[in-house]
């Protein structure tokens, strides 16, 4: 399952949550979790994520939040700085998940 880029919008809205990178990161991961659940999957089924950050200096904060959602062994991950993310987001995350046998 390919989860296209998710940002930290409030469920059912196109409004980013307030609170900066930490709040946006947490909401982004919750949004990913919701999409997975709708497909009958969970975070344990994620094998790869790509993280786009508006400011790479916020990587440590994002990483702390990200680690709250996964258990070792963590999914493979790559990250890069990006300007002009959707809706002015500070972070966008896309993931790949695999359906269990």
Would you give an account of this structure?
The protein is built from 2 helices and 4 strands, in the order E-H-E-H-E-E. It has helices at residues 20-38, 59-69, and strands at 2-6, 46-53, 76-81, 91-97. Strand 2, helix 2 (59-69) and strand 3 (76-81) form a beta-alpha-beta unit. Helix 1 (20-38) runs parallel beside helix 2 (59-69). It is globular, with a radius of gyration of 13 Å. The model has no long low-confidence stretch (mean pLDDT 96).
Oligomer class: single chain
Beta fraction: 25-35%
**Which sequence of strands runs across the widest sheet?**
1-4-2-3
Distance between the termini: 14 Å
Low-confidence stretches: none
Query: Got a strand count?
Result: 4
Question: What order do the SSEs take from the amino end to the carboxyl end, as H and E?
Answer: EHEHEE
Mean pLDDT: 96
Shape: globular
Q: What proportion of the residues is helical, as a percent range?
A: 25-40%
Rg (CA only): 13 Å
Compute the number of helices. Answer: 2
Largest sheet: 4 strands, mixed
State the secondary-structure class: alpha+beta
């Amino acid at each position: 399952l390919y989860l296209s880029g998710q940002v930290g919008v409030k469920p059912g809205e196109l409004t980013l949550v307030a609170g900066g990178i930490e709040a946006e990161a947490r909401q982004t991961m919750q949004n990913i979790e919701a999409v997975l659940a709708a497909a009958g999957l969970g975070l344990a089924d994620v094998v790869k994520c790509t993280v786009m950050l508006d400011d790479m200096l916020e990587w440590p904060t994002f990483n702390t939040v990200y680690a709250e959602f996964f258990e070792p062994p963590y999914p493979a991950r790559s990250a890069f700085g990006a300007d002009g993310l959707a809706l002015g987001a500070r972070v966008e995350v896309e993931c790949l998940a695999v359906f269990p046998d």
